[in-house]
Each structure stands twice: as structure tokens, then as C-alpha cells.
Write a structure and sequence with these properties.
Length: 418
């Protein structure tokens, strides 16, 4: 990290709200919660009333909670695809469980019992997978695997990727064994794609019976951002995490300092937990809170070029008319100014230049998808922005890259009238 810490998220799927399941303490029927992650701060979400301690909660399990293998005895595992061989079979079993009232039974039969479920990942993303598996102390061995179907590689217990078929964990004993692993998805240049889908596989290919339960996948979270809000000055926004949907576990990860029109809470490190919550502590006396866009995600730290000279600007949306005698009338139409950030960096190496182009320009596909950027973590500014359609740099001597004008423009907020 250089003298300045720059954080960025860009593309189609950086917002955990979009990949998880979102609930809120109340909801205006005309301004539903999917407007929190529609990629447009101008489309705002609203609570139904001015409640006390309003909350937005996301269940961030990337398997959609279906790794709990809950269901009626002997049915097919909900949400999992069976890929058995011979007389092998997978089914829900209420006789064995690590938690809840059932687990997945994998009968090898004359071949093997195997089930898999895929989840949306992002290139280079830090992820944690956890599991519980059980053998039968005879021939049945439970195995967990993670595969990237795009590269064909398997995740190793050492968190590396290999083209050899590899188990993440195995259990032969007739007792539940739990484990978890934090790993990084293969990067953009290995996948040759921004957002690969990964496959979690549970299998018994040795004989007899084996079981799996409580398979969960969480993305490492280090930021909460809110763009365009009507939160009263005395409300305290808290960023909280939980392992049990805020029953017994409820951890305060960070507190935001309110800033109009946007603010963020950046954590000191990535945290791997299933449930995340924005809690707006206090009563919003001015009325139901409106939120233009809300992001929970994982930032990338930019390798800041030596000459990082962001040019900050502001833009006001308005209507202007000129009378026939020349007098100008200007009417502000927006509630807040929009900020612009012009990057005119000089990259000292190909690595620095490529990271900026891959992580910002390529992930955002030019000006197609949004970019969330904190230009300096020492300052309160955070932009939900669009980039430029075109990007140009001049390669000079000694692999320096001089960027031409590259402007990120904050997207519009809800109009002043709404
Ligand atoms: Ca929105
Ligand atoms: Ca279970």
C-alpha cells in the first residue's frame, strides 16, 4: 500500500446484496428493497415508516442456504444436482445430521453417489467454504471438492488450484468432522473472464454410506457503502455481522460517520460471516429513510502509481433557460451535487497499469457497469460512478504508462421532487 489507500469495486456482481437474500425491518410497497441494488442510486428504496433502529439484512451464503440439506426423509437434495453412477444415489436423511433435522446421505451402490451446486464467484475474490462430513467407519468415505468448471482446476487443502482431481476434505470415521478453508478464486487473467461460476461437489465413491451437512460459502466482506440517503444527522449507522441471523451472534464491525449524499464503513480486514446488517440506530424524525443504493462487498486495493493525481470535481443537474432579453434562469433539479473523479495517473510498471485497466475499465466494460471507488480512505468520499466508454494511455520509455483523461462520474441521485 502506498501513501494513499485507494479502494475499488467494479462490474456486474460486486454487490453482495445482489448475490444474497435481503430482508428489511419495513418496506414501502412502491419503493421495494430490490431498488437498493438495481445499480442506480436514482432508484431509491424506502422504509414504510420512520421506525426506530431500522435495519437492512443480507444472508450472504452464496449457496442460498441450501447446504443445510433440510427436507423430508429420502427426497432429492433441494437445489443440488445429482450426478451419480451405477446404483449410487443421494437423498435427504433424517437419521443423521450435523445440525437441523437432516443431512445428505450419499450411497455409493455399485458406483458412486455425488451431488453438486454452483455459485456465482468473481475472479480474484476471497471466499470461505465450510462443511461437515461423516463416513460409516466401513467403506463409505465422505469427500468435499471445489472445482472451477472454467479452468477445470480443483481447489487444494492448501488453498491452491491444481488440474489434478483433488479432495478438499475427507472423512471415513462414523463421526461428524467440520472444517473450513479461505481461498482466492483464480484471477481475471487465469479465467480470462470476470465472474466465473464455481462448483461445490460432495461425493462418496468408495462404497457404503457417507453424509454431508452444513456446506456454506461466504465472500470476505470489508466495506459497506450507501449512496443518496435521507438519514437524519443524529442517526448512527452501524455495520454489523452475525453467524446465526442476529439471534445470539451480533457483532458491531464498524460505525459510519454520516456524510451527504454518500458514506462508507471500511473494515480493517476481510471478514467471513454469513449475515450482514446495516442498522440505523435512532428514530428518523424527518420521515421514512430513503436509500438510493447500498453496497456490501469486497474491495480491491489499487497499486497506487507514484504520480496519483486525482482531480475532483462537482456537477449540478439543473434546468436552465434564457429569456429573449438575455436573462438566465437556472433551476436546480437534483437534491445533491454529483462528484467527478478524473484519473490522470502515470503508471511506473505494466503490473500497475494492468491492474487499473482490469479492475476498473474491464470489469465495468467501459461505461456499461458501475464502479464504486474510495479515492482516498483517509477521506469520507465514496462515488457510485460510471467510467468512460474509451480508455487510452501512452506507453513511454521504461514501461511507463501515461494515462490520458479518464473520468469517473457519480451517477444521478433521486430527483429533488421525489
Ligand atoms: Ca437504487
Ligand atoms: Ca442439516
Amino acid at each position: 500500500m502506498g501513501l494513499i489507500d485507494v479502494r475499488v469495486m467494479a462490474g456486474e456482481r460486486f454487490n453482495l446484496l445482489e448475490r444474497g437474500t435481503v430482508t428489511s425491518s419495513s418496506e414501502d410497497p412502491l419503493f421495494l428493497r430490490n431498488r437498493l441494488w438495481d445499480g442506480r442510486p436514482s432508484g431509491d428504496y424506502r422504509f414504510a415508516s420512520a421506525g426506530t433502529d431500522d435495519t437492512i439484512t443480507v444472508d450472504g451464503d452464496l449457496l442460498g442456504g441450501l447446504g443445510n440439506f433440510e427436507g423430508a426423509d429420502a427426497i432429492d437434495p433441494p437445489g443440488w444436482t445429482e450426478s451419480n453412477s451405477g446404483t449410487g444415489n443421494c437423498e435427504i436423511d433424517t437419521a443423521q445430521k450435523n445440525s437441523g433435522s437432516s443431512s445428505l446421505l450419499m450411497l455409493a451402490g455399485t458406483g458412486f453417489g455425488q451431488a453438486y451446486r454452483e455459485f456465482q464467484a468473481r475472479a480474484g475474490e476471497w471466499i470461505n467454504i465450510s462443511w461437515a462430513i461423516r463416513g460409516d467407519a466401513g467403506t463409505g468415505v465422505a469427500k468435499v471438492r471445489v472445482q472451477n468448471p472454467r479452468t477445470g482446476r480443483y481447489l487444494t487443502p492448501g488453498a491452491a488450484w491444481t488440474s489434478t482431481l483433488t479432495n478438499l476434505a475427507t472423512q471415513a470415521a462414523a463421526a461428524w468432522a467440520t472444517g473450513n478453508l479461505t481461498f482466492q478464486v483464480e484471477d481475471f487473467r487465469t479465467n480470462l473472464y470476470q465472474d466465473p461460476v464455481l462448483r461445490v461437489i460432495v461425493i462418496n465413491d468408495t462404497g457404503g454410506s457417507a453424509w454431508a451437512d452444513d456446506v456454506y460459502v461466504t465472500s470476505g466482506v470489508d466495506i459497506l457503502t450507501v449512496h443518496g440517503h435521507t438519514i437524519d444527522p443524529l442517526i448512527v449507522p452501524q455495520f454489523r455481522s452475525s453467524t446465526d441471523n442476529f439471534a445470539a451472534s451480533d457483532t458491531l464491525e464498524g460505525t459510519a460517520t454520516l456524510d451527504p449524499p454518500s458514506f462508507y464503513v471500511l473494515l480493517g480486514a476481510r471478514v467471513y460471516r454469513r449475515y450482514w446488517r446495516l442498522k440505523l440506530v435512532g428514530l428518523n424524525v424527518s420521515g421514512p429513510i430513503q436509500l438510493g443504493e447500498m453496497v456490501i462487498g469486497q474491495t480491491t486495493s489499487l497499486l497506487v502509481p507514484y504520480e496519483y493525481k486525482p482531480r475532483l470535481g462537482r456537477l449540478r443537474d439543473r434546468v436552465a433557460t434564457t429569456a429573449d432579453f438575455g436573462e438566465q434562469y437556472v433551476y436546480p433539479r437534483a437534491r445533491w451535487s454529483r462528484r467527478t473523479l478524473q484519473l490522470v495517473s502515470h503508471y511506473e510498471s505494466l503490473v500497475q497499469y494492468r491492474q487499473a485497466v482490469d479492475e476498473i475499465y474491464e470489469r465495468a466494460a467501459g461505461d456499461a457497469h458501475p464502479i464504486v471507488i474510495v479515492p482516498d480512505t483517509a477521506l469520507p468520499d465514496v462515488l457510485f460512478a460510471k467510467g468512460d466508454q474509451k480508455h487510452e494511455a501512452t506507453r513511454t520509455l521504461l514501461t511507463r504508462y501515461d494515462e490520458h483523461s479518464w473520468t469517473l462520474t457519480e451517477m444521478p441521485f433521486p430527483s429533488a421532487e421525489s
